[in-house]
Specification:
9 helices, alpha/beta, elongated, 7 strands
């Protein structure tokens, strides 16, 4: 995926109201664009083949041939697509089997918007995410994210963000394109595990420079 454009998402869930609400939230998240919606396994595969999304959110219990079969068909239809499974359950055997089959992540539907968006950003950087519902302490997330400190340029971008500058203003200040600013911000979000610009500033400016 090019670093200069949004993450293109296909949302697949058989609950129409839940799917619509999810898509509205994702469309408001920086760097996310919902390109399609599906309500069963076969339609998810067909839409993925036609729309070529970067990431598919796939409900484990959606009608169709089952999550393992649908996952396999998605990966064959769109090589390289990242698939994040959504579920209301926390069955580790199911989690492990789907991750072994090629899923990039497994997220409980009980997590909040910020946790979901952070998980989606992480898998797009090559990480594997498990975000299950904890017992009394909220969601438990395990993620593999890019290691290492921020680069000098990423720190410059973050310092501009700390001054409440827009992406366009940052681009003008640093003499780079707005798309390059977005790419740097995505890298920063992934490295520090941020879910918002303010969160990135709070977490990122304390890090060293590589």
């Amino acid at each position: 995926m090019s670093g200069d454009r949004d993450i293109r998402v296909l949302a697949s869930d058989d609950h129409g109201l839940l799917r619509s609400a999810l898509c509205e939230l994702l469309d408001l998240a920086p760097g996310m664009t919902v390109v399609g919606q599906a309500d069963d396994g076969p339609s998810a595969v067909a839409l993925a083949a036609a729309l070529r999304p970067d990431l598919v959110l796939l409900d484990v219990e959606m009608p169709g041939p089952g999550p393992h079969a649908t996952l396999g068909e998605l990966l064959r239809a769109v090589p390289g697509v990242r698939v994040v499974m959504l579920t209301m359950h926390s069955d580790r055997k199911l989690v492990d089997s789907l991750l072994a089959a090629g899923a990039a992540g497994f997220v409980h539907k009980g997590v909040d918007q910020d946790a979901l968006v952070a998980a989606m950003r992480s898998v797009m950087t090559g990480g594997t995410v498990i975000c299950l519902q904890g017992t009394g302490a909220g969601p438990v997330a395990l993620a593999e994210e890019p290691a290492g400190p921020l680069t000098a340029r990423e720190r410059e971008v973050l310092e501009c963000v700390a001054q409440a500058m827009s992406n366009r203003q940052i681009g003008r200040r640093l003499d780079i394109t707005e798309g390059t600013v977005k790419r740097h911000l995505r890298n920063i979000f992934a490295k520090v595990g941020a879910t918002s610009r303010l969160d990135a500033v709070n977490k990122g400016l304390g890090r060293g420079v590589g």
